[in-house]
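> forwarded from #structure-qc
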């Protein structure tokens, strides 16, 4: 018996649950993920398109960028703590 693939995965064009993908053609959001925790499934778009501070900390990163990164994490701390069903969690994991 074949397992039916969820239509949300196909529509979002991602390879599986909890696997974020870049969306360069979306006008506002830079990434998409189909998040799954237990039986709950949710399609989440996250991240500012074209954000210049995106990415992991770089060697020799300026103090200004370090402060921006720290401010984002502090500002969204409560939402990041909500886990995989929040956009802030994915933005923190993928972009910051």
């Amino acid at each position: 018996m074949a397992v039916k693939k969820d239509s949300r995965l196909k529509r979002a064009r991602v390879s599986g649950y909890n696997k974020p993908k870049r969306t360069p053609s979306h006008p506002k959001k830079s990434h998409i993920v189909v998040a799954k925790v237990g039986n709950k499934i949710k399609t989440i778009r996250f991240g500012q398109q074209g954000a210049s501070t995106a990415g992991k900390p770089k060697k020799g990163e300026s103090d200004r960028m370090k402060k921006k990164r720290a401010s984002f994490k502090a500002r969204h701390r409560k939402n990041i703590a909500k886990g995989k069903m929040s956009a802030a969690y994915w933005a923190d994991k993928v972009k910051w």
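QC bot note: The chain has a mean pLDDT of 88. Strands lie at 21-22, 29-37, 40-48.
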